[in-house]
Amino acid sequence: MKTLLHTVNKSPFDDGTLQTCLKFAGQGSAVLLIEDGVYAAAKDTTVSGQVQEALKSVPIYALKPDVEARGLQTRVMDGVHLVGYDGFVDLVAEHSAVQSWL
């Protein structure tokens, strides 16, 4: 089975990239939030419910340096895993393909 790592780099408050990604992220997939995409990992926002629902079936990761650069370290919702650059590389290696949602 082909497994996909989906990367999202756009803020969920600027466009519908995150929502589209979550529709296509199926079993065996994972989602990695990078750059402004990490805003989707913040609790108590208008997209928190969608992210919490997605977490029931798809692991979601956020790039820790991008979270820290945006001052979100204390606002990351439960269930979202923070990874460094080495974790990013591991995720790419663990999946058979990467889909970048730009």
Name a few traits of the molecule.
102 residues, five-stranded parallel beta sheet
Q: Topology as H/E string?
A: EHEHEHEHE
Let me know the largest β-sheet.
5 strands, parallel
Approximate helicity band: 25-40%
Distance between the termini: 25 Å
The counted number of beta strands is: 5
What fraction of the residues are assigned to beta strands by DSSP? 15-25%
Number of helices: 4
Shape: globular
Show the helix and strand layout.
Layout: E1 4-8, H1 17-24, E2 30-33, H2 48-55, E3 60-63, H3 64-69, E4 81-83, H4 85-94, E5 97-101
Give structural notes.
- Helix content is 31%, strand content 21%.
- It has helices at residues 17-24, 48-55, 64-69, 85-94, and strands at 4-8, 30-33, 60-63, 81-83, 97-101.
- It has a 5-stranded parallel sheet with strand order 4-3-2-1-5.
- The longest helix has 10 residues, at 85-94.
- It is globular.
- It starts with a strand and ends with a strand.
